[in-house]
C-alpha cells in the first residue's frame, strides 16, 4: 500500500510541477507519520522517504532511535516550551514557531547544544480560532524580533489552512502565504530567508505546489487514515 501511495503522491507532485512550471527537485515531500507505527515509517524509508513529519514530542522520541542520520524528523505540531529541550538535537526543522517566547526557548536550547536551529513561522492564514499560528498582521513584527536570536534561523513560513472538500477553496490562502513571503523578503531582515513554504496536505497539496509550496506534508495520502483510538 505505502509503495503504491508514494508513487501516486509523487505523480501528483510531478503533475503540479509541470502545470506550474516548477522543478520537481524543489519540492520536499514530508511523510506525516504521526500515530503510525515505526514499521510503517521503515517501509516508507525503504521506498525512499527521508523526511518524516510528527506532531508530538513523545512520538519523535520513540521513533528517532530507529533511524540513521540520513532521516530528517520535522516537528509540525504545536510545541510546548517545556518540551523543546527533548527534541532540539533530534529534529531537522521546527515548522510551528508561533510566538517569541517559544522562539526564545528554542534559541536557549540550541545554544546549549551549540547548534543553529532552522525554523518556520506558523501563520494562521484563515485566522481560525481553532488553529495555532500568528495572524497576518503579527507576522512581520514577530519575525523582526525572532530574527535577533542568534541560534535560530528563520527559513520560511508554514500554514494549515481550513479543511475543505474542494482544494480550490484553499488556493486563495496559499496565494496569500506566498505573497506574505515575498513581502517579508522585501523587508530584507538579517538572518531571515523565505526559501521554504510548508503548505499543502493530503487534500490540497497539488494546489499548494501550484501556488508556491516547497514542502508538502502528506499523511493520509501515504499511510492511510489515522486511528486516533490507538493513540493518546
Ligand atoms: C496531520 C498533519 C498533516 C497531514 O495531514 P493529512 O491530511 O493526513 O495529509 C499535515 N500537517 C500537519 C500540521 C498535520 O498535523
Provide a short characterization of the protein structure.
Helix 4 links the parallel strand 3 and strand 4.
Walk me through this protein's architecture.
- By secondary structure, the protein is α/β, with parallel strands linked by helices.
- The chain has one domain: TIM Barrel, CATH 3.20.20.
- The chain has helices spanning 2-19, 38-46, 57-63, 84-87, 100-112, 136-146, 171-186, 205-210, 220-223; strands at residues 28-32, 51-54, 72-75, 93-97, 117-123, 152-159, 192-198, 215-218.
- It has an eight-stranded parallel sheet.
- Helix 5 (100-112) links the parallel strand 4 and strand 5.
- The longest helix has 18 residues, at 2-19.
- The protein starts with a helix and ends in a 9-residue tail after the last helix.
- The model has no long low-confidence stretch (mean pLDDT 97).
- The structure holds pyridoxal-5'-phosphate.
- Residues 32, 34, 55, 76-77, 160, 201-203, 217-221 line the site of pyridoxal-5'-phosphate.
Quickly count the domains. 1
- From the spread of the alpha carbons, the general shape counts as globular
The largest sheet is:
8 strands, parallel
Separation of termini?
25 Å
Order of helices and strands: HEHEHEHEHEHEHEHEH
CATH architecture: Alpha-Beta Barrel
* Unreliable residue runs: none
Query: Which cofactors or ions or other ligands sit in this model?
Result: pyridoxal-5'-phosphate
Q: What share of the residues lie within helices?
A: 25-40%
